[in-house]
Amino acid sequence: MFRRTISAVATAVFTLLWAAPPAKAGATMDAVLARGELVCGINTGFIGFSYPNERGEWKGLDVDLCRGLAAALFGDPQKVRFVPLTPSTRFTAVTSGEVDVLFRNSTETMLRDVTLGLRAITPYFYDGHSFMVAASSGINKAVELDGATICLLQGTTNEQITADFFRRNNLSFTPVVFERSEQARDALKAGRCDSFGSDVGNLAAVRLSMEDPSAWKILDERLSKEPYGPFVRRGDDEWYDVVRWYVNALFQAEESGITAANVEQIAASTNDADLRRLLGVTPELGKALKLDPKWVVNAIKAVGNYGEMFERNLGRNSPLGLPRGLNEQWTKGGLIYALPMR
Amino acid sequence: MTATRLHDRTTQALRTKRPGRRWSWRDPALRGVVWQVLVVGAVLVAVGWLAVNTHQNLMSRRIASGFGFLGSESGLPIGEHLISYAPTDTYFRALLVGSLNTLRVAVSGILLATILGTAIGLARLSRNWLLAKFAAVYVEALRNLPLLLHLLLIYALLQALPPPRAALNPLAGIYLSNRGLVLPILEWAPAHGWCLAALALGVAGTFAYGRWARWRQAKDGQPRRIAPVALVLIAGLPTLAAIATDAPLSTVWPELRGFNFRGGVSLSPEYFALLLGLVLYTAAFIAEIVRAGVLSVRKGQWEAAQALGLPRSLILRKIVLPQALRVIIPPLINQYLNLTKNSSLAVAIGFQDIVSVANTTINQTGQAIEGIAIVMAVYLTISLSISLFMNWYNRRTAWAER
Questions:
Q1: What is the pTM of this model?
Q2: How far apart are CA B197 and CA B237, in angstroms?
């Protein structure tokens, strides 16, 4: 009787010691496929990037990027679970494995890429830091904000950029640091802050959510470069490849004129070797990523190419009405440049 | 089993009272040792496995570990700081500033909540119907709403105050706006050091006089008024020192310049909302503790004191409260600790306490384990200090049972 118990305990201890080697980073892809859904980290509420609409469905560029990735993996854009994250919890959520990938308007910087246990992938939105002030304040330049109280978001690059800017110009300011964008907006509206410092896309969304958007203005200056890109956990090259080339494929699709409407037709009829590869008529790209050869077709059918996603969520026909600007294709003077997919 | 055999066994057991280690499962001592070794071993293996696993994962993701980051420049702006701080300072200093902000709200919160809670608790026992009912409504209303709700409500109310340009100005130099409360402040001069020293001397003198007065009263039964002496010592000595050292009495008046008030000392709405929320909420609990403590003193004590002709306020102060304290203090410690830990809700209203600063630090350095460990260490230090002090005070007020 006792011998049996002892041996059971011993087995348990040995199992713990030997049979359960430390969980290694890697095999994210296997885990995602086995789970049958992608877990995607998004913003808690940011018009144009990720926000729930009146029916409680998540909408926005970041959300579409998640759905497209789910479509590329499973052939079904619905096989994705969204995890809304605040600025200060987003990266920990990726490193701890709570989410598989972060599409959450996050700026890529060298130290984030190298020291946070993350990998920053192809930027998909180029933005810059600015300040929003009341239109009636008469402020036109950032240097006129000397002595102002400025609302900021905890754990963003904007915190450091604002501090650096004021230090460089020998000016002073009082920060009020909030966890969520809505709190900062309310504080700005109530007059607790003279200004809200954030990326222009975010400011545009906040401005739109004000009762009278025309009462607020965003300064023309851009104090920083804020390239948003997806983030994945460090140490899993396979998964990194999937996310990297998925974003690249969306860029390439726009450049090649492939849209949600015509993708099937082009795939069926094209003689172009590059397009045949991209659309999986010849299966080497999908095979290299261990994906369905139709991975790009599935993604484009679900969410469209990069340009379609941009126009739908941020562009002229959307509430935000942002110009393409730097986010235009390289052929039209922008920075969106797909690497050759061959 | 016959009686003889039983007897034999007992004597045998007595004879072999301390047997040598028998290598058999029937030996309870050996079984005990084996089980303990196994349990401790399993715990050690589990802890070791966790450590190795964490270390490997951190290594494979190239996340630095250790506290080296504390020495590098933080770059994060902090609105309120008790010690001088700039974004060029290190993470260590930023976290220190955050800890001091936590401590600042916890200490003032504990003091104010104790005063308010005691007042409400006594009011609830008052013979004045209106006062007692008001206190009861206060307690029931405030302790049954979540603290977060209090904070958000108070903060929203404070934000509804007029902007700085239209600030309320109840007294000269005092401005109340949605940027907070601004007060004038004396311009610091070295001579003021002497005034502070005189003040300390005055307080010490009052304390000594109080003890002397009690000692005399024990001898001749004459009560002596302490208030006049206290006034002379506490107010008179610093004034005398100010005149003697010719201390300048120039005041820095806050004035509206540009966006905000410059000069003077200011209380931010974030700090004020947090402090007020914590005080109002915790006071409701403290009131009940005080009420329970007072009710725990037997009615005979009141009656005996009344029979001696003591006035009600004196009975409360000299007879009832000292006895009630031993019931009040242990649960009071809990409330103090709760208040301290609840101050971490500061994040919800934008007050930069230790949690807020640590959050940004974790986000910038990626060192979540170290960041959380620092937050835990800070709260643990503050809480244990409160515990130690209050336990000491509890022992002091406890009855010496004879």
A1: 0.80
A2: 9
